[in-house]
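Incident log, support desk, overnight shift.

02:14 A customer reports that sequence design results differ from what the structure should imply. Their input is reproduced verbatim below. On-call engineer (initials T.W.) acknowledged and began investigating.
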């Protein structure tokens, strides 16, 4: 009799545990939309000419974005911030023109009008939507990598309660700090957008240029504007050693950019709002362009490129209180996806013209949500005329220019030097259909250009 009663109590306790587990499972699947604590502030930083394949956290052999510093108790470079965030290893921009990429990020869609490529007026920007949600918004831009006309700047400044266009990254960050100190004391949610000139040629100007210098180099490559003018004019035929020297100069300037970002993050963490802002801030960092380094001929830092060197950029999201765990994700993603993610995370209205997919479908992995895989779309242009279009999958890139269709197998040819369409007719047909569909979806003709 006693044994039967003990067995009955064990069965009852087991039933209670199973019921509790079921309730917790239901709560985890449906009752809690996001893990952890929702951030109150957004810090969105973009930078020109930052190559994804030169980022230390994504496998680059040099400490370009992961600084080796023994003189500071805390180092807050991109790699360190990414330690508790999410890196996207295959992020691509819609254009190597920073004005187009940044405009696309702000609008959530490419700046295509009925007349073709141009300034986009339809749909709201991130700054406008964050303002409607009660955020105080500030935008600070290095104008050197963007359009210099007042109309072009007004497009980027739309919706910001405070915006400034200056000439150097130091001025950008100083202006942002001054604004943050003034606004954070009021206790309101902040959307801070910072665009840096990043790593611009001639890749010189201070002692950072000597970080990777070699004493026995006697070739033509030098960090001066005159050299790049000579290179573009065809006055130099670079050897492999010359190109390595060009990479040395680029990497040194990337270290300089990392030092600036580290200093800004340190101030943001410790000196603003008595150090309370950092934990409540979602940090998003992305490149708005990469940078060719004469991999194909003499091109360096082109605005009309369809090469991975110009289009593959780092993309980082970090807010340890909700984006938990260190991860590097390999899905192909676009800048419109970052825009859609910010809208999703903060419950902003999504423009009918939005072309992005929320990356929270990947980062919040405990919730089963569909993330529609698709190729990254990019275009090349000059003077608002589309010169070519391309799509990029994890393995393939298909480009269409005045040369016709060109297919590259980047799994076996990462630099994209060998055209292989004749060897892969099925892939060519499939990717061509995808390219036509994307052109049509964003408002370009199916056969653009």
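02:41 Re-run completed on a clean worker. Output:
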């Amino acid at each position: 009799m006693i044994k039967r009663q003990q067995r009955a109590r064990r069965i009852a306790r087991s039933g209670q545990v199973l019921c509790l587990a079921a309730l917790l499972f239901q709560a985890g699947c449906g009752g809690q939309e996001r893990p952890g604590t929702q951030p109150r502030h957004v810090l969105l930083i973009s930078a020109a000419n930052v190559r994804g394949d030169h980022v230390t956290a994504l496998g680059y052999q040099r400490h370009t974005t992961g600084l080796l510093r023994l003189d500071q108790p805390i180092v807050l470079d991109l790699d360190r911030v990414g330690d508790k965030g999410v890196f996207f290893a295959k992020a691509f921009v819609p254009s190597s023109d920073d004005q187009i990429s940044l405009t696309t990020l702000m609008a959530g869609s490419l700046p295509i009008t009925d007349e073709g490529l141009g300034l986009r007026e339809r749909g709201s920007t991130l700054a406008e939507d964050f303002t409607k949600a009660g955020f105080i918004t500030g935008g600070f831009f290095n104008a050197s990598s963007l359009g210099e006309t007042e109309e072009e700047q007004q497009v980027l400044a739309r919706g910001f309660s405070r915006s400034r266009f200056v000439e150097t990254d130091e001025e950008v960050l100083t202006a942002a700090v001054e604004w943050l100190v003034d606004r954070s004391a009021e206790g309101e949610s902040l959307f801070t957008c910072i665009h840096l000139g990043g790593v611009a040629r001639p890749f010189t100007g201070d002692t950072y240029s000597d970080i990777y210098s070699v004493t026995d180099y006697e070739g033509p490559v030098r960090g001066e504007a005159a050299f790049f003018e000579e290179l573009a004019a065809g006055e130099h035929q670079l050897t492999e050693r010359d190109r390595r020297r060009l990479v040395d100069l680029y990497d040194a300037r990337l270290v300089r950019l990392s030092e600036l970002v580290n200093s800004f993050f340190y101030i943001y963490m410790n000196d603003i709002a008595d150090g309370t802002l950092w934990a409540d801030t979602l940090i998003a960092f992305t490149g708005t362009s990469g940078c060719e380094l004469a991999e194909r001929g003499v091109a360096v830092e082109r605005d009309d490129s369809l090469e991975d060197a110009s289009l593959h950029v780092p993309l980082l999201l970090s807010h340890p209180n909700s984006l938990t765990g260190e991860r590097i994700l390999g899905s192909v993603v676009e800048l419109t996806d970052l825009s859609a993610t910010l809208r999703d995370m903060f419950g902003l209205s999504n423009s009918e013209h939005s072309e992005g997919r929320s990356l929270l479908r990947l980062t919040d992995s405990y919730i089963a949500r569909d993330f529609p895989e698709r190729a990254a779309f990019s275009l090349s242009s000059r003077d608002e005329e589309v010169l070519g279009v391309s799509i990029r999958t994890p393995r393939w890139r298909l480009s269409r220019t005045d040369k016709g269709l060109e297919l590259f197998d980047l799994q076996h040819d990462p630099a994209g030097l060998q055209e292989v369409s004749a060897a892969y007719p099925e892939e060519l047909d499939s990717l061509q259909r995808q390219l036509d569909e994307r052109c049509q979806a964003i408002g370009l003709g199916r056969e653009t250009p």
